[in-house]
Amino acid sequence: MSQTVTWRFTPLDTWFFKQALAPDSLAAQELTSLFPPSPRTLIGALRAAVGEAHQVDWKAYREGQQPQIAEKIGAPNEALPPNTQFSGVAIRRNGQGYYPMPLNWLAIPAQQGQPKGYQLYKLLPDTSPIHCDLGHVCLPAVPKDAEKGAKPLEHTYISSKAWAQLQTCLQTSAFIAETECLKRDDLFKSEPRLGIARNNKTRKTEDGQLYQTKHLRLAQGISLEIDSQGWAVESHLNTVMLGGEGRLAQLTQHHTEIAQPITLPNQAKGLILTLTSPAHFQQGWIPDGFSQTERNGQTLWQGQINGVELTLICAVIGKAHREGGWNLAQHQSRGVESLVPAGSAYYFEVNQNDINQAWSALQNHAIGQDTVIGRGQFNLAVY
C-alpha cells in the first residue's frame, strides 16, 4: 500500500472560507466563513503548491499544453491528482488531534466543586418502537439517570484521548475534562472585513460591488491537516494561498500517525458509527446500500459496509452541513449540497460476523459518495 502523507496548513494570516450561498447574494449580507473548510479547498491549494514548484504556466495547463504537470497534479477538469485518495480535514492543536464531538452524547457542565469538565450521557436505542414518519422505530432514548438540561455539545471537538475513552464505554455516563475539549472560541476569533470588487480589465471599482466578510484568525497552535495516499510529490511550495482572497498558509509534510489497537469489551451488543467528516448519501440520511425492512413490527434498515452485514437500528443526525465552493476549472460556483454532518451517529447490529471481526473490517473505511475527497469518514464505538 502506498505511504500515507499528512499535509499540515498553519495560518500566516487570517483565513476566509466562504459559506455556501448563491453568488448573487454577495452584497446582500455579511458572508461568514466555514470552519473547517471543505477538503476541496485544501486539495486545490496542494495542487497549486505542487504545480508552482514545477514552474507551471497556468494558462497553458488549462489549455492542455502541459501534460507533464497534469501527470503530477491531475488534469484541469479533474478534482484530484491521479490515483490519489484524500482524507477529510482534521483539526490539530499543538500537534494533538481532535475529533467532532459525537452527537449521541448529551453533555452538561460539571457542578460547582467538581473538576472542570462535562458530565456526559449516552443515548441508546429505546426498547419499544414508536410510530413516526419513518415507521415503527426504536428512537434514541435519554438514559434515566441523565441530568435535566443535558444536550449535545455543538461546535465542539474532543481530543483523541477523550474519544478513545468514549469508544469502548458501555456505561451510559462518562466525564471528560474541559482541557480535552475545543470550543469555537478556543479555535478562532472572527474579524469582520469590508471590501469592494474590482474590474480587472479597467482596474476600477464598480457600483454595487461592496461586500462584507468575516475572516477567521486561528488561535495559537491551531492548524488544519489532510492526508493523501498514492500521491508521489517530489517538491512543493512551503507557503501557499488558501481559501477566499488567497490568504497565506505554511505548508509542511508529516508522517501519518498510526492509531493504537483497541480491546473491545466482551459485553458489547453492537457498533456505533460516528462520522468524522460530512457524508453524502443518495437517500438523505440513510447510508448508501441500506434498504428498509421489518422485524417483529420494528422498522430497520439492512445493508453492508466493506462486506460486513449490518442492521441499522436508529441514528442521531445533526443539522445538515451545506457545502458549495468555487469550481476553478469551470470558473463558476459549485452547486450547494446538503450533507450529513460530522458527529452524527448510527447504531448498528452486526448480523454475521462477531463484533471484533466487524470492527477490524470497518477500520479505515468511508461511506457514501465522494469518499476520495474525504467525505463519509467515521470512527467506531460500541454500545
Write the topology of this structure:
Layout (H helix, E strand, L loop, with lengths): L3 E8 L27 H15 L4 H5 L4 H7 L11 E2 L3 E4 L2 E5 L4 E5 L7 E6 L1 E2 L4 E3 L2 E3 L2 E2 L9 E2 L4 E3 H8 L5 E5 L3 E2 L1 H4 E12 L4 E15 L3 E8 L9 E4 L4 E9 L15 E5 L15 E5 L2 E8 L2 E9 L4 E3 L2 E2 L4 E2 L3 E3 L5 E6 L4 H8 L15 E5 L1
Distance between the termini: 32 Å
Biggest pleated-sheet summary: 9 strands, antiparallel
Instruction: Quote the beta fraction.
Output: 35-45%
- Global Rg: 22 Å
Question: What spatial form do the alpha-carbon principal axes imply?
Answer: globular
Helix proportion range:
10-25%
Number of helices: 6
Structural class: mainly beta
Which regions contain 5 or more consecutive residues with pLDDT less than 50?
A: none
What is the arithmetic mean of pLDDT?
91
What is the strand tally?
29
